[in-house]
Amino acid sequence: MSQSHARYKEQGSEVGRRGRRLSRGRFTIRSLAPLLLAAVQPWLMSPDVRAQTGARPNIVFVMADDLGYGDLGCYGQKQILTPRIDRLASQGTRFTQCYAGSTVCAPSRCSLLTGFHSGHGRVRDNIPHEIFLQPDDLTVAEVLKQTGYRTGAIGKWSLGNPGSWGLPTWQGFDYFYGHLNQDQAHFYYPDYLWENEKVDLLAGNRGEKRGEYTHDLFTEKALDYIRANSTRPFFLYVSYTVPHYSDHSGRTPDVYLVPSDAPYGDRDWPQIAKNYAAMVTRFDRDVGRISDLLEELGLSSNTALFVTSDNGPAGKGGHDVGFFDSNGPLRGVKRRVTEGGIRVPMVVRWPGVVPAGATSDQIWAFWDFLPTAAAMAGVPFTGETDGISMLPALKGEPQPESHEYLYWDYGHVRSRFRQAVRYGKWKGLRGATDAPIQLYDLSTDIGEEKDVAAAHPDVVKKIREFIESAYVPSPAYVKK
Length: 480
Prior knowledge:
Layout: H1 3-8, H2 29-40, H3 47-53, E1 58-64, H4 83-91, E2 93-99, H5 105-114, H6 140-146, E3 150-156, E4 175-179, E5 192-195, E6 198-201, H7 214-228, E7 234-239, H8 271-296, E8 303-309, H9 339-342, E9 343-349, E10 358-360, E11 364-365, H10 369-376, H11 391-394, E12 406-410, E13 418-423, E14 426-430, E15 437-441, H12 457-470
């Protein structure tokens, strides 16, 4: 990292700051002391003692791409096999009201890593692709790195191209392997991937060869990372690309390939459905491999393992969302701010801390991950964020602080601007800036079928106020 970039990344306000709206300060002895103590204390203990005391857990966050709320057996899927994630759910807690950061990939990842919803975040849409993280963006990797964690990101990045400030290695990650540009991530047999800031040419995919499947490469790199960092606290963010389907299907049908459609080859399904199911089961298998390695290395008891998806299932690209009922009881798909586009599965296992075999209806969202991870590391986050630490909810304890509301928007570029608010049991939707607000009672209408706005004008008024206060215009986007 260059000296100028390091200077941009100097932190103030202990482990948190927001440079765009908060003044940037320098560390003092007083502010450094708790960080240094937090970083040194665990190293005074052996790995076994650290595991027994639960000090500074490893954090592994695994995310699928376009996996629907209903695509896992533990969330009601009947046809696609997901035994390993289902087992994790029995060993941990299944959250039924967790929300992605957005209904599409780039802003959802921005929300996860920086702790802001789309009304405040840097990256708010997939287009234009020149909007990337900047020096004054603070990521969860930077927060954890300050407290002594090793930090790794593997898979789909979406938040910075070569030459930009948004590179993972310039945003707090010690190691990166995968796709920088989200459009390249549509392809499972590309010519190259990125390793840190260098190109890794994939000789097995040159010409007509299809020898190196990116998902499998990501899994091997993830396993290697865990092995290499098994004696110190680490954060590993694995952002898989399955079961995403490319929007370029008509021109490049090869993007639909998966090395094998097993165990679904003999099913009387369309081939695209076999491929999709095989991708989901492959994801499940490799989540299991990660879990197995943690167990083998004696890390499982002190590792928090999160499994989720970046948004709802894709409604385009050839796969019929209804074939497997991928959005379950929810309405809508990716690119919609209805529940099917933003509510995602979330399974968390952390033995002895997260209750086993439990189901939680705690309402939370991706922007809560940053303050939650900081709390897990033992250093409460004091910077500006839309998030709240959900550590009590993870532990199965009463959550003392909860959101008054959650906010999403989508369509800053090339499509109608849509907004949504979750307010207790209520869900408000506005399909355009001048459109009336629709209102749904999710406690009785999870499928958002009956608009009850006319019967609850006071709630509609409140949601309108939330929408107006949550959305802060960004000069990088033109609202439609």
